[in-house]
Structures are given as structure tokens and as C-alpha cells.
From TrEMBL:
The lineage of its organism: Bacteria, Pseudomonadati, Pseudomonadota, Betaproteobacteria, Burkholderiales. Pathway: Protein modification; protein glycosylation. Residues 377-397 have a biased composition (Low complexity). The keyword Ribonucleoprotein does not apply. It comes from Paraburkholderia polaris. Belongs to the glycosyltransferase 41 family. O-GlcNAc transferase subfamily. Keywords: Glycosyltransferase, Repeat, TPR repeat, Transferase. Its EC number is 2.4.1.255. This is protein O-GlcNAc transferase. Residues 602-765, 783-954 form the O-GlcNAc transferase C-terminal domain. TPR repeats lie at residues 323-356, 431-464, 465-498, 533-566. Residues 235-255, 349-397 are annotated as: Disordered. It is an enzyme of class 2 (transferase). It comes from the Bacteria. GO terms for molecular function: protein O-acetylglucosaminyltransferase activity.
Length: 994
């Protein structure tokens, strides 16, 4: 790539913190521009070379930004001060043409209209020949076509479609596809929000994220509230008449944001009236100075020297005895080439700060990318030049420490990271800069970069347990479990009774299937922290995974006795109980309802009126909430459906992903969504607010009471219609959940349906299943070569209990030559199973263990199995389908609960009812019958994939069509004011409702 930029470029900064993701270009005054690596891609998504890229100084294209270009040589020109946000896309289609994007789509960090969190909107696609004005805000998902002009201070809402006549300065009224009513347009122009200061816009940014074209009544209410807020702000500004209240407004006629000069005159720096500082307390003065410094640092870093000049003039007017303001003013003038005018303020700075040698010379370049922080107004110490301070001290000053803390605690993470980097550069042997830089980068979602900086901080301060804890958490979030384990062990060595560190160490062992070690860690924690509910919850999960359900239930109850509001433990208890045959399904349903009632009682005030447009035929925004959008069973069912749902023009799909792990599956899934948001750091309230702001019409839960669920968000009812599906085969127990997706085999109408609070919606099959691409071909029935039949199990350990093994042992007794293969169970779990079999009189020589492997190896294990035996009362689902694709049927024993019918659902869809037992005796008899009928079993195996291919389970298009129809029926009922009702989406029109 041939990159061109400003003349003051000093080349590529290979050691910059962001150089692993970006080509970072440096400039003489410390400014940088950043280009994502592999920016240019062709139609096949391959990295390609282009003729040239010209990028202006201080321009930042976000991570994931791409340029889709043609095969010929092309040129892309990007103006100065461009901030692209996350995944900005440029489409270049005409060879040998110039495509220009200019100005500031989002504005400089720390001084902008706050945009929505970056992942919460899809890509904005910008075609060539587009001009975007200063501090315009692009909310995402837009297509901005050739010849479009977007003026200064404009907000472009989600999914805007641009046209050549453009959007003019300060007016969002000309938005094709978002045409406002005349009343809304009139109120918008009357509001004239573009005249308000940026701080006011930031304060009220949520109002600007609302689709003002969707609902006129709501839009007018929002605009009325904004108008009142503006009027109040204007009255307050006139009443106080303070210098800050009279801060000059942007000159809307300028090409860049400019500020009028305040009253203080440059040619007589000593005449500024200090009275404005007299009314401030010492704390207020210190805070104000810190704010001035932060603003000047940001403006200087971004090269916005005219703005810096105006702010510096304001600072000198309020604090004329502080040298920092005069120095910043002189440097701002100097950077604009006004050397003669810079001399007086720099001399004044030198008089006030005689140790700051850089202040006296207007010819000297700025030694740092950011100005040196000043002390508080009442401090006696004068400002020290950065280079002088490097030599004079090895630790940051208190003012720098306070400023770092203030920036971080106020959530200004970009500024905090920039200043922390400056501190780390000036004090490389002190841990503070590296620590705060790592924390700020983590808060911005830059896990890899944050990890590197925190490792540096640990090298300098190896006993900082707070940094060690954050580092370990980061490693865990990135799936680097073994490294996280070692970090937690080092932390425990520093603080032997750190309960959270012990809990997290146990979790890392759990994820490595070292269950015995994990249990020991949790029990050790309870010795010194017996009242720790989290440890009890984690221990309960460990016991459940080992199939020790009674112990797990007791442990969850102990956790809840300590903390009755620990809803995660309550969900885990319900999930555990669903695996026990000792719990009556009706009683289990009552316990789920009690959970829902308890949760919804705590959040009555959270239910707000939904203002979604009630057009029954419009495109529906459908949100999916899940923590399993990676290589997980839930994702394997969801992905084939998404391929078809994403093509439905009546649906716009939104993902809310509640996990930190991103793998190849996540990347594939993301491509099917209109919008993808990573929400695992968001609170339940914040997530509910985001879902409302996104205008979601139907929200689908994919977790139920399994791990990483967001049921507390659903309890806040952020969407008009809410559905539970796929991840949990039982009711959530919540009245705020309107529907449950299933089929007539999973939840037969009548008794089973009554176990759900949600209304049942029947699909052609519960979910689509796509066989793994790496699946090997089926083989000949192994019993024909072996001379004996091999039963098999691929179930997880917490489904295998003594009662299950007892029934399987009866099968092995009834077929004395048969063997049993158990795959995917850890060694300690397998040893426990062997003990259970031996207690039932089955010798261990008839048992075989196969290790847990990746998908291809896992499927290869089926070549050794003739018939799978299902667990109960929590039956297999994914395992049963994988086995069927490999030609292996599953003998299953369904019960009254939906969780017990997973195997029966698959066998019913494959028309193999001969493998569905009615009771334990029938289970054994059917096993014997099939073991004595090898020819039929061999023929079935040979044609199993053909049978699968004709089943609705394996036809995602059929299920997607049923779901699309179901979503539309749900929506139409809501627009008509009708309550949720059970229906079958596969029945003829007019006969769906049951």
C-alpha cells in the first residue's frame, strides 16, 4: 500500500500500543493517524494492494474497517480529523477513481457528541464522493450514496439511506427513509439543538438515539422534553453569567469548529481580571484546572490548535497566575504559525514557571504529545517541563495521579488511555502509567493490548494484587485459561485468603475438566470464607457436573440461605433440579413460576410503555440474547436458521452477545446479523435500555436458566414481545416472557404445555440441525464384524447418575455379550461410572472409555457404536442428532417434562418410534430386540442420512419459514392489542390459534 499523508509525518510508529492492529503514522508534534491492517479487501474478502491511500493527520479508521475495492488500481483520499468508529466500510467500485471522505464523523475523543457504544449498530457503508461535516454523528447501519453531503453537527440515525441532495448543516430533517412528519420537522427546527454546547448534547444523547420517525406522539414528547431542557440551560447560563457559562459557541460558517476569542487580551497578559476565580473553593478551583488541562491535552493531541487557543485564553482569564495556561496559549499560537503573537504568552509562562525552560522559546517544538499537567491553583510548586521532570523524578506528580483517576472514574477512557500512555512514556519504570493504561484499554474492549500493559505493570510492581486480579480476568475472558490459572495462583500466593481469586482459580480448573482439583479449591475457600455465597454456587455447579445432584441441590440452597437475592444460584438450582427424577415435573414448574414471581416483584417500576410503531406489516427488529454465540451446541442449532432468516426482507436481526469469547463460529454468526453488540460488560438495566433504544420489536432468549443468561434484562420487559427458545427445555417461569418455541413432540399439547408460563408456539421442528462439515462418512454396522453389539453414550456427566447406570446395566445383563462405550467423560468421572456399573454387577472389562476430542474425532467415535442409550430425565438433544447423522439410532425413555423428550423428538422426526420406550421394562426389551435384529439395524444405519435429509430437523429453510410466520403472527396480535396465545405456525392461515 502506497500511503501518503502530511509533510510533517515522521513515519510509521512500530512500537505504538495499537501497532498490532493498525498501521500507526506519527507526526512531529505527537499527533498520529491510524489505518487498520489489511484495510483493502476485494470482493472475495482477500487482502489486496491499491494504487495509493492518502490519509490526513489525526485520522483514525476504527478496528474492522474495510475498503471493498475492485481489481484495478484505485486511490482513496481521507481528509484530516476523520474518526471512523468501529467497522466503517468504504465501497470503491470504479477503477482509477478518487474517493474522498472528509471532516469529522464523530469528533475528537473527549470533546464530542457521545455516540452509541460502537458494537451496537451495524456497518455504515459509504460510497465514493461523500462529504461529511464537522462533528456529525453516524449511528450506524447507514448507506451513504455518491454525492451525499452531510453538514456539520448532524445526527444520522440508524439505517439512513442517503441521496445526492444531502443533509444540510444542523438539520436532520432531510433523511430519506426517515422522513419526519411536518409537526416533528417543525419542532426539530424550533429546537435548533445544533446551537447548543457539546456538553449539553452529551448530557441528552439518549434522546438523539431515538427514531423520531417511528412514532409521532413519542417524537413530539421527546422534542418537548429537549426544548424544556434547552430553555432551562439557557436560563441558567444567563443567570450565572460566569466565564464558563459564556463559553463561546462554534462558528457554524467555518470549515472547522472555531471559537471566538474571550475578553482577555493577548498583548497585555497581566490585565486579565482574576475575580472569576475568587468565588471558587479550593476543590472547585482544582477541579476546574484539571478540566482545563484535560481539554487542552485532548485538543493538542488532535492538532486542533485554534480550539486550544480559545480554551487557553479562557484559562488565563480565570487563572492568570498559573503558567500552564499561558504556555498552552503560546504553543497553540505557535502551532498555527503565529510566532510573533506566541512570544508574549510564552514569556509570561516563563516568568510564572521559571523552571519550565521550554516556555521561553517559541521556536522550540513541543517536547511531548500532551502538555504537562499543572498543579492546583493554591500549590506553590511551579510547572516543570516534561524533559526536566524525567530527569528530576522517577514517579508521577500527585496532580498527574489525580488527573488519571479523575479521567478513569468519569468514564473518559480514551482520554485516560492517552494520558496514561504519556505518563508511562515519561516514567517507564513506574507502574502507575502502565496500570492505568491497561485498565483504560480493557474498559474500551482492547483485551490484548490491555493484557500487555498490565503485564508490564506487574513486572514493575509484582505485589500489586489488584493488577494481578484484572490481568487474570482478562486472560480468562480471552479463553487463555491455562495462563489465567497461573495468574490466579500467583495472586493466591500473594493473598492466600483472597476468596475471589480462589473462586476464579476453581473456574479455570473446571473449564479444563480438572473437576477434582476444582472441587478441592472451592472447599478450601469455604474453610476461610464459609459465608461466601459465590463459592457455594461454584461448588454446586461442580457437583452437578459430576452428577452428584443431591449434594449440588443442598449446596445451592446453602448459597441462597446466605443471599436470598442471588438469582444466578437460583437459576442454577432450577437447572440442577431439572436433571433429577426425584422432582415431579409439575412441582418443578411451580418452582420456576416462583422464581419468575420473585424476580418480577423486584422490578415493577422497570416496565415502561413500549412506543414501537404498530404497523403490522413493517420490517420487524428481532433481537437474540445469548452467551453461547461461539462453538457451542446452541450456536450449532442457531446458525443454519440465521442463514435463511437473514434473507427475509421483513426481518432485521440484532444480536446481543453475553460472552467475551470470539471464535470462528462467532465471526460466521455475526455476518448474518443486521447488528451485533457485545454486552457481557453491560448491566441488566443498561442492556434493557439499549434494547429499547434499538427499537427491538421481538426479543428472543436463547439461555433460559443456563449459564450467562440475562433473565433479569427480560424481567424489565425491554421489548413488546419476548420469547424463550433453544437453550433451556423448560419454562423461565416469567410472565414477562410471552412465548416459547417448540414443537408437538417436545411439548405435547395438554399436560406438558401446562408446565409453561409462556404460550406455546409450535414450529415444524424445535430447531434446525446442520451436520458438521467435518463429519466422516457412516460405516458398516460394527456388530457385523465384532460379533457383539456395542451400546454407546455421548452424554455429559451430570446426566449420568446411578439410576441411569442401573437401567443401562439391566440392558447389559439382558444382552450378555454386549459392550458399552462411554465417550467424552473426564477420567475421574469415568471411574465413578465404572464403580456404579460394578455395583450393578457389570464387570469393567465390558466397558470402554473414549477421550473428549474435537468434532471430527468425536464423530469418529460413532464408528464403534451400534446403538446409543439415552439418559433420563434429562435426555440428549445435540448428541442424539449427531449420532443419527453418523447412522446410530438412540434408544430413549421420555418422561413428562420437555427436558426428558429430546431423544424422543429426534426419533419421532426420523419416524423411528421403535426406539422410544414407554417405561424401563420396555427400554430393556427394545434393546434386546434390536440387538437380535442386526440385519434391520444395519440397513437402517446405511440409509440413516437419507432419512435425516427428509426430516424437518434437517431442513432449516422449512423451520425458518415457520419462525418468520410465527414472528409476524405474534406481532400482528400485539398491534391489535390481543394477548399472547398458543398457536401452530405450520397450520393453514386462519387455523393457527389452538
Amino acid at each position: 500500500m502506497n500511503v501518503k499523508t502530511s509533510d510533517d509525518c515522521i513515519g510509521v510508529l512500530t512500537n505504538h500500543p495499537s501497532s498490532n492492529q493498525f498501521v500507526v503514522i506519527g507526526y512531529k508534534d505527537g499527533a498520529v493517524s491510524a489505518i487498520p491492517k489489511d484495510l483493502f479487501r476485494n470482493a472475495r474478502d482477500e487482502a489486496v494492494e491499491v494504487d495509493s491511500l492518502q490519509i490526513g493527520r489525526c485520522s483514525m479508521l476504527g478496528a474492522g474497517s474495510i475498503v471493498k475495492c475492485g481489481e484495478g488500481a484505485q486511490r482513496l483520499v481521507i481528509g484530516k480529523h476523520v474518526a471512523g468508529g468501529l467497522r466503517l466500510r468504504f465501497l470503491l467500485s470504479d477503477p482509477q477513481s478518487t474517493h474522498t471522505l472528509c471532516a469529522v464523523p464523530f469528533g475528537p475523543p473527549g470533546f464530542r457528541i457521545d455516540d452509541a457504544p460502537a458494537p451496537n449498530y451495524p456497518d455504515t457503508v459509504i460510497h465514493h464522493d461523500v462529504s461529511i461535516g464537522d462533528e456529525a454523528m453516524l449511528l450506524g447501519g447507514s448507506v451513504i450514496k455518491s454525492g451525499c453531503v452531510i453538514g456539520a453537527r448532524s445526527v444520522v440515525p440508524p439505517h439512513f439511506l442517503g441521496e445526492p441532495y444531502g443533509i444540510y448543516e444542523g438539520s436532520p430533517a432531510r433523511l430519506t427513509g426517515f422522513r419526519f412528519s411536518e409537526r416533528v420537522r417543525e419542532k426539530l427546527l424550533q429546537l435548533a439543538w445544533w446551537d447548543m454546547p457539546l456538553d449539553w448534547l452529551k448530557q441528552h444523547r439518549k434522546a438523539f438515539l431515538i427514531d423520531l420517525a417511528a412514532d409521532e406522539g413519542r417524537a413530539l414528547d421527546v422534542l418537548a422534553e429537549l426544548q424544556q431542557a434547552k430553555d432551562d440551560a439557557m436560563r441558567a447560563a444567563h443567570a450565572t453569567a460566569s466565564p464558563l457559562a459564556e463559553a463561546p459557541q462554534p462558528d457554524s460558517n467555518a470549515g472547522e469548529v472555531r471559537y471566538a476569542a474571550p475578553a482577555a487580551q493577548l498583548d497585555d497578559p497581566g490585565t486579565a481580571d482574576p475575580a472569576s476565580a475568587d468565588a471558587l473553593t479550593a476543590d472547585q478551583a482544582e477541579a476546574l484546572v484539571s478540566e482545563f488541562i484535560a481539554t487542552l491535552n485532548a485538543l493538542s493531541t488532535l492538532g486542533q490548535h485554534q480550539q486550544a487557543e480559545a480554551v487557553a485564553r479562557q484559562m488565563t482569564a480565570i487563572f492568570p497566575t498559573l503558567g500552564f495556561g499561558w504556555k498552552a496559549l503560546g504553543e497553540a499560537l505557535q502551532q498555527q504559525g503565529l510566532v510573533d503573537q506566541a512570544l508574549a504568552p510564552l514569556q509570561r509562562a516563563s516568568e510564572l514557571s521559571p523552571r519550565d525552560h521550554a516556555a521561553a522559546s517559541p521556536e522550540a517544538p513541543h517536547p511531548e504529545a500532551t502538555p504537562t499537567p499543572a498543579p492546583a491553583p493554591d500549590a506553590s510548586e511551579t510547572v516543570v517541563a516534561p524533559r526536566a521532570r524525567k530527569q528530576a523524578a522517577a514517579a508521577p506528580q500527585m496532580t498527574e495521579t489525580k488527573r488519571l483517576a479523575a479521567l478513569f472514574n468519569s468514564g473518559r477512557m480514551a482520554e485516560a488511555a492517552a494520558f496514561a500512555q504519556s505518563v508511562a512514556n515519561r516514567y517507564p519504570r513506574h507502574p502507575l502509567g502502565w496500570k492505568m493504561l491497561g485498565l483504560a484499554l480493557r474498559a474500551q474492549g482492547q483485551a490484548g493490548e490491555a493484557t500487555d500493559r498490565l503485564r508490564k505493570a506487574i513486572e514493575l510492581a509484582p505485589e500489586d494484587h489488584e493488577v494481578m486480579l484484572v490481568l487474570a480476568e482478562l486472560l480468562k475472558e480471552q479463553g487463555r485459561v491455562a495462563e489465567a490459572e497461573q495468574a490466579y495462583r500467583r495472586l493466591i500466593a500473594l493473598k492466600p485468603e483472597h476468596a475471589l481469586a480462589h473462586n476464579m482459580l476453581g473456574q479455570t480448573l473446571y473449564w479444563q475438566f480438572r473437576l477434582g482439583e476444582a472441587e478441592a479449591v472451592f472447599r478450601r475457600t469455604l474453610e476461610f470464607a464459609p459465608g461466601n455465597a459465590k463459592t457455594l454456587n461454584d461448588l454446586g455447579l461442580m457437583l452437578q457436573l459430576q452428577g452428584r445432584l443431591a449434594e449440588a441441590v443442598d449446596t445451592f440452597h446453602r448459597a441462597l440461605a446466605i443471599d436470598p437475592d442471588y438469582d444466578t444460584a437460583r437459576s442454577n438450582l432450577l437447572f440442577c433440579l431439572s436433571h433429577s427424577e426425584d422432582v415431579d415435573p409439575d412441582d418443578l414448574a411451580k418452582q420456576h413460576r416462583a422464581f419468575g414471581e420473585r424476580l418480577e416483584r423486584k422490578l415493577p417500576a422497570q416496565h415502561k410503555r413500549h412506543t414501537n410503531s404498530q404497523d403490522p406489516q413493517r420490517t420487524l427488529r428481532v433481537g437474540f440474547v445469548s452467551g453461547d454465540l461461539f462453538e457451542h451446541a446452541v450456536a450449532s442449532f442457531l446458525e443454519p436458521l440465521l442463514v435463511d432468516l437473514a434473507r427475509d426482507p421483513g426481518l432485521a436481526l440484532y444480536a446481543y452477545y453475553n460472552h467475551s469469547i470470539v471464535d470462528d463460529v462467532s465471526v460466521r454468526l455475526r455476518s448474518h446479523f443486521h447488528n451485533w453488540a457485545s454486552v457481557y460488560r453491560m448491566s441488566d438495566t443498561a442492556l434493557a435500555d439499549q434494547i429499547r433504544a434499538d427499537g427491538i420489536d421481538i426479543l428472543i432468549d436463547l439461555s433460559g436458566h443456563t449459564g450467562r443468561n440475562r433473565l433479569q434484562t427480560f424481567a424489565r420487559k425491554p421489548a413488546p414481545i419476548q420469547v424463550s427458545w433453544l437453550g433451556y427445555p423448560a419454562t423461565t417461569g416469567m410472565r414477562t416472557m410471552d412465548y416459547f418455541f417448540g414443537d408437538r413432540f417436545l411439548v405435547p399439547p395438554g399436560e406438558a404445555e401446562n408446565q409453561f408460563v409462556e404460550k406455546m408456539v409450535y414450529l415444524p421442528a424445535p430447531a434446525p440441525f446442520a451436520p458438521a462439515e467435518v463429519a466422516p462418512p457412516t460405516n458398516r454396522l460394527p456388530a457385523l464384524a465384532n460379533g457383539y453389539i456395542t451400546f454407546g453414550s455421548f452424554n455429559r456427566m451430570n446426566k449420568l447418575r446411578p439410576e441411569v447406570i442401573k437401567l443401562w446395566a439391566q440392558v447389559l445383563h439382558a444382552v450378555p455379550t454386549a459392550r458399552m462405550l462411554i465417550a467424552g467423560v473426564a477420567e475421574d468421572g469415568y471411574n465413578k461410572l465404572v464403580d456404579w456399573f460394578e455395583q450393578e454387577g457389570i464387570d469393567r472389562t465390558r466397558l470402554e472409555s473414549r477421550p473428549r476430542l474435537q468434532m471430527r474425532g468425536y464423530l469418529q467415535h460413532h464408528h464403534a457404536v451400534d446403538i446409543c442409550l439415552d439418559a433420563f430425565p434429562y435426555a440428549g438433544a445435540t448428541t442424539t442428532l449427531h449420532a443419527a447423522w453418523m447412522g446410530v439410532p438412540t434408544l430413549t425413555l421420555p418422561g413428562r417434562s420437555a427436558a426428558s423428550r429430546g431423544g424422543a423428538v429426534t426419533m419421532s422426526h426420523l419416524a423411528l418410534e421403535g426406539f422410544i420406550a414407554s417405561d424401563p421394562t420396555d427400554f430393556v426389551e427394545k434393546a434386546v430386540d434390536w440387538a437380535n435384529n442386526l440385519s434391520t439395524l444395519a440397513e437402517l444405519r446405511a440409509r440413516m442420512r437419507e432419512r435425516c435429509a427428509h426430516s424437518a430437523y434437517f431442513l432449516p429453510g422449512v423451520i425458518a419459514e415457520g419462525m418468520s410466520r410465527a414472528l409476524r403472527l405474534m406481532w400482528q396480535r400485539w398491534t391489535e392489542g390481543k394477548p399472547p396465545v398458543a398457536f401452530d405456525s405450520s397450520l393453514p392461515l386462519g387455523q393457527e390459534v389452538l
